[in-house]
Amino acid sequence: MVYTEEELGLDRVEKHIFVWKMDLEESRGSGSQLELLLAKRLMVEGALLVKSLRSYAVKEDGRGSKQSVSMFQRGGISLGPVSGVPALPAASTTGIRETKAGKRPERRDGAAWIGGYTEGGNGLRRTKRNVFGDIMHQLFGVATDEQLQQQLRVDEELRGKVTDTLTRQVMYEKELTQAIGNITAEEDKMEGRLQGVIEQQGRDRERSLRMDGHRFTLMEDVDRLEDILEAVVTGVVNTRHSAYLSSKAGLSRVASFEYLNLTVTSGRVSAQYLTRLYREVEVEMLAKDALFVQLRTPGQEYYLHVSHSLEMPLTEHQVRGT
After folding, report:
1. Which residue from 85, 104, 105 is spatially nearest to 96, judged by alpha carbons?
2. Predicted TM-score (pTM) above 0.85
3. What pLDDT digit, counting tens, does each position of 200-224 carry?
4. What is the dihedral angle through the alpha carbons of 310, 312, 315, 320, rounded to the nearest 10 degrees?
5. 264 backbone dihedrals φ, ψ, rounded to 5°
6. 167, CA 20 to 30 Å: which among 108, 245, 271, 289?
7. Pairing verdict, β 257-265 and 58-59
8. Which CA distances in Å does 315 have to 1, 72, 281, 312, 319?
9. What's the angle, vertex CA 144, arms to CA 126 and CA 115, rounded to 5?
10. 257: nearest Cα among 279, 230, 281, 280
11. How far lies 196's CA from each of 3, 26, 28, 31, 200, in Å?
């Protein structure tokens, strides 16, 4: 006969139910209500089985005894609007600057002087011609004052056009820089949203795996407690639990177990089971009588009741005679 003791671990089951309930209360998501509904039945069944087995247990001492984010932020190049427009080259101004009364006009910027001033209050204007310049123009082809003035006006127009072109180019570059900055800001926002979605998906996957682990573990506990309760109520250990007890006892094959009792020792609930291991022996003598059957083996001799079937194995319930 082999006696096997199994600790039920009811405290662990109650603690697991409490931890699962806390995880469900802390979880927030679209599937939290569905997970709560799926877990409720297992929790109720587990708690009911624990309470029932505690009520069946017998105290051995005879006395009563009652527990993120890090958010990923892309470090890109920040483009902002241009702080200012670069200064354009100032146009050289030419002209005649008036001096004090009674003095001749002065030339500036190297321009040819064409002369001219107004007499005091007579309204007449005298212009002095550059005769030396005309002579140089006739002899050596040097530009006259009129030609120089015309060239200066052309240069001024070209300078103005170049200035306008540069101004438009700077404005265009400023608008382009602002557009690039806006696009970069939108990319950063989209990347932040995408990273948030990825992190939320990771949290949902982790929560789903954790809930599946809770459900699988409690389902195994509920099945085992159901088998134990069936053995306590009916006295018969089913095949699934017999396979578990046989592996726990280190037997080479699945044996048939009988339930003995359920006890509480130092707050631990344990169940005791019994199984019989049979072996074949050689029969030396078999004699039948009206009142009994005599059976002799190399090691023992049995006197059995006539109603005993010889096809059934002998157990401790049979009487051995000497």
Report:
1. 105
2. no
3. 888 888 888 888 888 898 899 999 9
4. 0
5. -120, 120
6. 108
7. parallel
8. 10, 74, 14, 9, 9
9. 20
10. 230
11. 58, 20, 15, 19, 6
